[in-house]
Amino acid sequence: MMFSRNARNIKHSTTCLLKHFDIKHSRLFSTTTTAKSFASRVDKILIKNILNSNISNSSSNNNNNSNFSYVQKHYTTIVNNNSSSNNNNISMNDFFNNYQQNTIDKPLESKIDLTSKFLLQFKNQTNNNDSWDYSSIESFYSKDNQVTPTVLSNFLLIRDDIEKYILLKMNSNTKDTPTILGQDLILFDTLLGTLIKKNMKVDDLYCTPLQLSMGKEIIHQIINNEAVHPYQDKQNYIDELKQRISKNKMCLVLFHPSMKNTPLMSLYIVLKEKVPDGMESLEEIPKQESDICCAIFYSISSLHKGLKNVDLGHILISKALNYIQSNFDKNHTWTYFTLSPLPTFKSYVKKLSNKDSNLQKVIQEFESKAQSEKINMLDRIRSILEPLAYQYIQEKRKGGKTLDPVCNFHLKNGANIYRINWKGDTSEKRLEESFGMMINYEYDTKIKTQNSINYKTNHILSENQLFKDKLNKMLNH
């Protein structure tokens, strides 16, 4: 069948466009510089599939808007040719209300494809083909329509999928993987983060202890997304879960009242009579219940990738402090500490070893050994590694934040550095991260707010006197 003149022009222009955009070796960008070039690329496969299924319809389209090329015009109008404002809002409602229903049991690529088609449609309907302006969506849900529980839940689900997709592409070794929409997808991800933040009000959020009666849907989200101390068997987790929430232990879970089946964050706590110096002492049951006076926060996890840059950690910690003060012996003077990892310490030491051949030999010997042999080797290399740990925990990035991400998290929330613990956790995971070292941070409720201000405004590291004394001893040794 013969194509009309318009259809032939579309096909010719598209062929030229595909030749111009060589994305054979493109990958999802990880830096701002590459983001700009990435944003101009489009998915060859997506364009071809759309054109093949719609080329016959395009021959009857007589819209000759001179402001756009044939490729721009038809590529952006393929998904939905109705550009009225009213239909734009209906489209938004349909997408955000039905995302979970429309993507259930579908692979990640299909979910991203649905989001990409929505973005193409939105660009067409707002007549903005050069840069994507999401202000109308933000305005739509800020002024005209209340964000319903379903919509808020879908904001999180959509962003979960986008973040997973971004991570997948960044970690992919496949150089010829086609990309989809580039910067538009990233801008949309940022918008969703903004909308989630606006609807996660501090006073609305609440925490409650994890209980087996909560149901599998909630428990599975908590089990599967535990980041600091992953569950050994995520299928048969009951015994391990009971062990983590029995006797003097608990897990506080952060919820939004509109999403009662969607736990947002989890915080595992052990009530102790003293500050533990490692996982072994953390597990010891207090001999006298009356001696318990310390709440130890030993694992805090965000349960959704869609909560990236949505800072809820300080909210959960503040609510945990209030929960313990309200629900346990009020005659005690409670103190609050963490038992935390140093997740990038070993990487830091390996980087230092590039300029220190002796240190490099130590690391090579350590890494060549089995786990039991590594543990036996630790005391022999303590005099080398422990001073580096004190140096590392005070190391700052450009901009004043600490190099250690966990340290940065706790200091900005008002904690102070309390103590570094040698052989705090000799599990395989912690040996690989930090040569088995762990650290305590202290949350002193009297100075917590001021500590946070000092760190966030002036990059001042709050340090307990115990830590300062140990540091001075190291320096004068």
From TrEMBL:
Pfam families: MCD. InterPro entries: Malonyl_CoA_deC (IPR038917), Malonyl_CoA_deC_C (IPR007956), Malonyl_CoA_deC_C_sf (IPR042303). Gene3D superfamilies: Malonyl-CoA decarboxylase, catalytic domain. Coiled coil: none annotated. GO terms for cellular component: mitochondrial matrix; peroxisomal matrix. GO terms for biological process: acetyl-CoA biosynthetic process; fatty acid biosynthetic process; malonyl-CoA catabolic process. Residues 214-444 form the Malonyl-CoA decarboxylase C-terminal domain. Signal peptide: none annotated. GO terms for molecular function: malonyl-CoA decarboxylase activity. This is Malonyl-CoA decarboxylase C-terminal domain-containing protein. It comes from Polysphondylium violaceum.
